[in-house]
Amino acid sequence: MSHSVLMVCMGNICRSPIAEHVMRAKAEAAGLDFTVASAGTGGWHAGEPADHRAAAVLDQYGYTSDHRAQQFKAEWFENYDIILVMDEDNRDGVLQHAKSDAHKNKVQLIRSFDSGAPKHAVVPDPYYGNEDGFVKVLEMIERACDGYIAQHISE
Question: Are 24 and 30 in contact (CB under 8 A)?
């Protein structure tokens, strides 16, 4: 049975594309039938590729990196089983489109699946930093995706 995951950050050029590619690769390696996509709460980068630093870190760590940014649409609540957001602002941005408790229950912080992360941990936006920030973001996302995948293997 297929499972669908949407990753969401602010502009869909840094964190959520990293999360999309990492989750897709990890699900495939685990033999899981996952559909994975990403979006941003804002549309100012729609149609653009991932930030060059995000693409570089994905490539460096052996992931795919092809990407075009898109803005979250309310109707996607019906298309995805879970919506994993990078931080509280992203969660608020997605929840403003929720029309039911079922929609609200689909939205979770991605790091909630990292058993080593503090409660309510977020993935910080690396956009205004240097390449090291993108590596740290990738590592956080890898741990969260590992936790999410482990949960689905054990179900």
Answer: no
- Read off the amino acid at residue 111: R
Q: What is the pTM of this model?
A: 0.97
CB 153 within 8 A of CB 34: no
Edge-to-edge strands, sheet with 34-40: 34-40, 3-9, 82-85, 107-109
Tokens encoding 9: 């950050």
* Structure tokens belonging to residue 75: 């109707």
Query: d(Cα 110, Cα 143) in Å, to the nearest integer?
Result: 10
Structure-block tokens of residue 122 = 């977020």
Longest dimension (CA), the chain: 41
Q: Helices H, strands E: what count in the chain? A: 5, 4
The residues carrying an active-site annotation are 9, 15, 125
**pLDDT tens-digit map of 114-142:** 999 999 999 999 999 999 999 999 999 99
